[in-house]
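New to this. Please check this fold:
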Amino acid sequence: MKSFKVGNKIIGDQHKPFIIAEMSGNHNQSLDRAMEIVDAAAKAGADAIKLQTYTADTMTIKGAHTIEDKNSLWYGKELHDLYKLAYTPWEWHQPLFERAKEHGMIPFSSPFDASAVDFLEELGMEIYKIASFENTDIPLIKKIAATGKPVIMSTGVSRLDQLAEAVQTLRNNGCEDIVLLKCTSTYPASPQNTNLATIPHLKQLFNCTVGLSDHTMGIGAPVAAVALGARVIEKHFTLSRADGGVDAAFSLEPAELEALVIETERAFEAIGEIQYGIQKAEEKSVFYKRSLYVGQDIKKGEIFTEKNLRVIRPGDGLAPKYFELILGKSAKSDMKSGTPLQWDHVL
C-alpha cells in the first residue's frame, strides 16, 4: 500500500501511527473550550483534530425519534435535540482550523451532507472523514470522492457488501487514497465487541491503509491495533470527563491521549521484522550467557565432578553443552575456583 501526504504528515504502512483527536460535541457549546481542546490535543502530540460538520436540521427533523434504549448514554433524548447540543457551529470551523495549523496539526472534519462538503471545500479541507452511519450514503460518498482528497472511512454498522460498494464508489469517483477504520458503533464499545482481528483482513481485502476508530475506554485496544497493522487511530477527546458532554464518558483526557501517542508509536517501532540470531545491540550481552567454570579448587589429575564443575555466568568458559562430556575426565593442571574452563585444562 502506498503512503500519502496530508499537510506535513505522512500516512502509510511504513510510517508511525497517525493519531486523530475527535472533538465531536465535547466543546459543550463553548468556542473557548473548543480552542482549549485543540491546544490540549496538540500538546499531547496528536497529529490531527477532527470536527463534525452538520446541523440538527441536516441530520434529522424535530419529532422524528426519541432514544428509548435504556443502556444508551443518550436515553430519553430527542434525536434533534441531541444534535443541537452536539453540533459544532459552522462559524467556529475556520478559527479552530487556524488554531490547529498554528500547532502543526491537520484540521479536518466529517461532513454529513452535500452542503457541509461545499462549506469544507471553501475552508481548504485536505482530507475527509466518512462516519460509519454515512458509509451507505452513496450520493454523499460520490461528492466527497469528487474533491480528489484522501478519505478516511469508518466501517461500523456495515455489512461487507456495503463496505465494498462504498470503497468502489470512492475509487470510481476520483478518490485514490483511502483509509478504512475498524469501528464498533456502540458508545462506549467493549473490548469483547471490538474484534481487532478484522484489521489485517480489512487491509488485505481492500488493499488500502487501515486503522481503528475506537470507542473503548483506555488505550489498550489502539496499541493492539497498531501491532495488527493499524496506522490511523481515532479517539474521542475531552479536557475532562468530569465536565460532561455528549461524548465525554468514552473520551480520552489529555494525559491519556499523550500516553496513546507514545505507546502506539512504541508498538509501531517494536514490530520490526522477522529476526533470529544475535543482534548488534545484543553483542555485549553474549558475555553474560552461561559457561563452564571451576567451582572448587582442583589439583592436577583430579576428576571433574558435578561438585567442582559449574555452569554459571559469565560466558568466558566452554559452552554448557560440554558439561556431561567433561565429567569424569581429569584436570591437566592445578586450577583455582572461578577459573573459566577451557579444553587445554582437560586431559
